[in-house]
Fold Outer membrane protein assembly factor BamE.
Amino acid sequence: MQNLKLTLTGLTFLSLATLAGCSFPGVYKIDIQQGNVVTQDMIDQLRPGMTRRQVRFIMGSPLITDTFHANRWDYLYSMQPGGGQRQQERVSLVFDDSDHLVGLAGDFKPGVTREQEIMGTSGQTAAPEASSPTDQPAQQPPQQPEDQPPAPGSVEEQIQQEIDRTQATPIPTPAPIDTQNE
């Protein structure tokens, strides 16, 4: 009889310990944020020809500085609401050989807010329609050979393939303010 009580008590505690690891309905789960928070306002402040120092002041330090692509900075941000699907945003900034910003690629477009993108309206500034160097697509910096490619099927290879598929978008330059007519 004593042995049966001990066995039942032990099984009860074992089952409670097992259930403690499971998620019960109504239990709060925290939001998990990782990486650099990048907003549309930050992207809108970027201009072609900005130095790396100016870009770092606006955007913060890049999450990834690839040794094989020294002229590219990558900003990644992921957010997983408690119990929800993970959402990820990425922005890659491309610099020329003289360390000036020439383009960007990723989930943000310069001058277009998320609401404008959803509604289909453009967020173009009142710049003249004349062709300028910023209207031309940014040239990709020459690819440097990789010493050791990532292992096939690895997360690093998937990230690298996603980054390599992106196209740089030129940053629009707003029209200068006319101060002569005031």
In short: The first helix runs from residue 2 to 20.
